[in-house]
Amino acid sequence: MDASKVDQLVQTINQKIEPNVDCTSCGACCRGLMINVTEEETKSTASYLSLSHEIFKEKFIESSEQGVMIMNTIPCHFLSENKCTIYENRFNECRDFPHLNKPNFRDRLFGTLIHYGICPIIYNVIEELKVITRFK
């Protein structure tokens, strides 16, 4: 099956599965993922929290020598009772997880399978994909 057909199939399955999963009953992604953030997101979230940009970065962000920024704790600082306390202003990486709507699923398969055991959406999409493709 070519890559575009795989993408279409995964996205179709995801559209069926995702609305039936209540992420707030799980929260595993927020408890276990390293979250990459952008400079723009740090500014936006600092403003949302009524903090200075400098204070926000000092409290919540870790930067590599190459300038890659991540949340400095796992689980995420903003997780409370399986709910995101900054949900309206959550980071793009959080907003897009589990990334099943993105193209090039086959190229991202390894990264997706890493989360197979923690994300009910990924688990159910992969299981349905296995049935449809007759994976053995």
How are the elements arranged and paired?
Elements: H1 3-17, H2 28-32, E1 36-37, H3 39-48, H4 53-60, E2 61-63, E3 69-71, E4 79-80, E5 83-84, H5 92-96, H6 109-114, H7 120-133
Antiparallel strand pairs: 1-3, 2-3, 4-5
Helix pairs in contact: 1-7, 3-4
Instruction: Let me know the number of strands.
Output: 5
Radius of gyration: 17 Å
Largest sheet: 3 strands, antiparallel
Strand percent estimate: 5-15%
From the N-terminal CA to the C-terminal CA, the straight-line distance is 16 Å
**Number of continuous helical runs:** 7
Poorly predicted runs are none
Order of strands side by side in the largest beta sheet?
Answer: 1-3-2
Task: Spell the H/E element sequence.
Answer: HHEHHEEEEHHH
Which of globular, elongated, flat, extended, rod-shaped describes the shape?
Answer: elongated
Helical/strand content category: mainly alpha
**What's the number of domains?**
2
Would you write up a description of this structure?
Helices cover 46% and strands 9% of the residues. With 136 residues, it is mainly alpha-helical. The protein has two domains: 1-29 and 97-136; 34-92, no CATH class. The strands form two sheets. Strands 1-3-2 form a three-stranded antiparallel β-sheet. A hairpin with a 2-residue loop joins β4 (79-80) and β5. α1 packs across α7 and α3 (39-48) packs across α4 (53-60).
Entry keywords:
136 residues; mainly alpha; two-stranded antiparallel sheet; 7 helices; 46% helix; elongated
Outline of the structure:
Helices cover about 45% and strands about 10% of the residues. It is mainly alpha-helical.
